[in-house]
Every structure is written in structure tokens, then in C-alpha cells.
Amino acid sequence: MYNLDNVDIKILRLLQNDAKIGIKQIAEELSLTKTPVYERIRRLENDGIIEKYVALINSKKIGGNIIVFCSVSLDVQKLPEIEAFKSAVHDLNEVLECYLMGGSNDFLLKVMVEDLDAYHQFSSGKLAALENVNQIKSTFVLDEVKKSTVIPTL
Fold it and tell me: Which of 11, 113, 146, 150 is at 20 to 30 A from 64, Cα to Cα?
């Protein structure tokens, strides 16, 4: 685990709320000069704490896509088969997130597609076609109640 001090945490909180915030504004908020703020951000980036900066897109405004959570069970749960599935999922553009799970299912995928027909094509034509996939259980999102990318422990 990486050891963050209070200034690092404050910088990360500010960046999580607005990745476009300028170094000058961060420095003002923290009562610091720009140089140490710049150096800290650069260190956080170089150390992999800050992986990348992204724009969060409101999908409802650009196409009304649907979100589906897929629970996937594999036939064989040995490490080579798990790694093969993980690798294959990286090539599926519809998959937004993928988690290896403990419990009754092996993976949980968050999938975004245009509509139910597109989901059928994805689940039958791509996901089920992957080697070692045994079962897919789908749950469809009716309403997005809360969506956040902020890490609450900071």
C-alpha cells in the first residue's frame, strides 16, 4: 500500500471531483505554491496512483444505451482458464467493467449496449462464444440511482 500524506489526499480529492482543475487553483485551495503541487501530482502519476484522466460521458444524452450486469460462470476455474477469460474480455468493447468474484459466479461484467437486440447479439455471439463459458445470467438496469468514480476512503 502506498503511503499518502494529507496533502496528497487533498490533491486526489480535488482531482477526483474535477480532473480539469488547474494546478494554480489546487495550490490556492491548499495554501501552497504551484511548484510543490505540480511535483506531487507528477509523483502521483509516475507512481501509478493517478492512472489517467478521463471525461465522464452522460450516455443518456448521446444515445440512450442500456446497462446490463452479467454474471458469468466458467466450466473450469483453474488459473489458465481464468486468465484466458480475463484476456478475452479485454477485447469486448461492450464490457465497461469486469470483476473476478468469489461465490456462486466467477465473473461479474458491467456491459453497455444500444438496445436489447444489441445485447442479444453480444451475449449470444460474443460472450457465450468465449471458450470455457458455462452460464450467463443477465440483470438489466432500469434506473441509475447513483454513479460515482470517487474513492470514498480518501
Answer: 150
